[in-house]
Amino acid sequence: MRNAIWNYKLMNETHPTPETLDREARAQLEALETIGLDNLKNRDRLKIPPQNMPAQEPGVRRLNTREVTLGYSDAQARVEALRCLQCRNAPCVAGCPVRIDIPRFIKACAAGDHDAAIAVIKENSLLPSVCGRVCPQEVQCQEHCTVGKSLKDIGLAVSIGRIERYVADHERETGKAQPPPVKPDTGKRVAVIGSGPAGITVAADVRREGHAVTMFEALHKPGGVMMYGIPEFRLPKDIVRFEIDNLRRMGVEVRPNFVVGRTRALHKLLEEDGYDAVFIGSGAGLPKFMNIPGENLVGVFSANEYLTRCNLMRAYDADRADTPVARGRHVAVLGGGNVAMDAARTAVRLGAESVALVYRRTRTEMPARVEEVEHAEEEGVEFHLLVNAQKIIGDEHGQVRAMECLKYELGEPDDSGRRRPVAIPGSEFTMAVDTVIVAIGNDSNPLLRQTTDGLDSNRWGNIVTDENGKTSLDRVFAGGDIVLGAATVILAMGEGRRAAQSINNMLKPI
After folding, report:
1. How far are the Cα atoms of 111, 289, 327, 423 from residue 295, in angstroms, in the given order?
2. Contact 384, 412 (CB under 8 A)
3. Is 92:142 a contact under the CB 8 Å cutoff?
């Protein structure tokens, strides 16, 4: 009965259509133009309503894998951009890991000059279509926005990421996107290990200086976490492929199915293959587990494996893909980050009758983006907060049949600043499930440090670098999740940009 009621609610729940939102935005823009866009005072800008992002209806999108959010219209992007106060101290820039000149690109968008807007973004960021979709702007640039602070609600900050997405998509969809120009050949060669955000950034920045670049990717498709980790409904893979093709057009050689440390030792790239520098951007691909009884039962998956099967190998498309994937009826996802939301929402799309997200803190402490949490709830994911699994129970065939859980309450803050979850003795209960997906984080890929003598790492297994991205080995640099631990796309890009500058400086003629 509960599912029947919920389905009725979904089918009758309406989001404003893109056409409605565009019509309202065009009316708002016309009214603002009557005042005169150059005459708008801060008090006028603060009265402009924030623009809602159009999205597929929950009852529709849970049955497909198409992108959930549909993007701003031209009028919406311009109206949202007109909310920006053009602060002289630009606090938003301080919150951007790659230091995009945010007020300048937003001003260009507000004026309708989208070519100028994307040109500003590309001075510092090579993946605006990606970052505009998946970066946590609400805890980066938008957290510092003066508009949000003036209105006493960070949720009302200027939607910088959505504007970035619009101008990037506009460039690509109008056929104006071009790869960065490349300087004359220098005769120098650089190897990039990993094709995720950090690797892409390094490859492009180093190639722009005229150095030959080879990008080595362990999997059969380049793109790193953007390809295997983030679902199609959040980041369409055509966008990732477009960015990789841009690198190829620049002259970057992309070599898939090449595992540095197995196919070829790192030191041989330098000593025998003639590379003048190596960048390691192999990511955080080692999944963490709970270390509780029953994790070896049939039906228990790491989120990495589950999402890789679905995203990289398209297991959700059963009619056209041979990759097997668990299509559980009653799925539990352990965790509260973006990966947990991705896994839970993927399970919904694979036809689960119920999906429970189990998290030992409250919604306030969840590290997932607010938008992803809201989308998961809209799609029917049930949140079990202040709860954690302590045992997974199997049947006589070794298949998951239930999960024993324990209730928690919040105590004092821990090292992360979040209140520590404290178990409540005697609060055990059992949840009937047939599939458990563990999404509690990842450790850095251990292969290179295990196969490369002299490559220093810290106690968490992350490669140690100096302030320039240089490792303990001569001519070897690193960045992204392999250095930071599991982080965001834009933070990995910031690490890559820093390392690329160091590599380019090292390779300059004396």
Report:
1. 56, 8, 18, 20
2. no
3. yes
**Whole-angstrom Cα distance, residue 211 to residue 205?**
9
Residue ranges of domains in the chain, CATH in brackets: 22-173 (1.10.1060.10), 189-285+444-506 (3.50.50.60), 287-442 (3.50.50.60)
Q: Are 490 and 135 in contact (CB under 8 A)?
A: yes
Sign of the alpha-carbon dihedral angle for 359, 360, 362, 365: negative
Digit-coded pLDDT (tens) for 272-319: 999 999 999 998 888 999 999 999 999 999 999 999 998 888 777 767
- pLDDT reported for residue 14: 58
> Which DSSP string corresponds to 460-472?
TSPBP--TTSB-S
Distance CA 37, CA 71 (A): 23
Q: Which residues contact 33 (CB under 8 A, 6 or more apart)?
A: none
- How far apart CA 219 and CA 226 sit, in angstroms, is 13
Which among 430, 422, 421, 442 has a CA at the least distance from the CA of 392?
A: 430
How far apart, in whole angstroms, are the C-alpha atoms of residue 115 and residue 280? Answer: 33
Q: DSSP of 76-101, one letter per residue?
A: HHHHHHTT----TT-HHHHT-TT---
What residues does 45 pair with on adjacent strands?
A: none
Q: Which amino acid is at 21?
A: L
How far, in Å, CA of 422 to CA of 243, rounded?
A: 45
pLDDT tens, position by position, 182-216: 999 999 999 999 999 999 999 999 999 999 999 99
Q: Is 79 in contact with 87 (CB distance < 8 Å)?
A: no
Q: List Cβ neighbours of 465 (8 Å cut-off, separation of 6 or more).
A: 471, 477, 478, 479, 483, 499
What's the rounded Cα separation, in Å, for the pair 341 and 234? 11
pTM over 0.90: yes
What type of residue sits at position 93? Answer: V
Question: Using an 8 Å Cβ cutoff, are 314 and 228 in contact?
Answer: no
Return the CA Rg of the chain.
24
Q: Cα(125)–Cα(131) distance, rounded to whole angstroms?
A: 9
Tokens (6 digits) for 9: 């609610």
**What is the residue-wise DSSP string for 161-226?**
HHHHHHHHHHHHHTT---PPP-PPP-S-EEEEE--SHHHHHHHHHHHHTT-EEEEE-SSSSS-THH
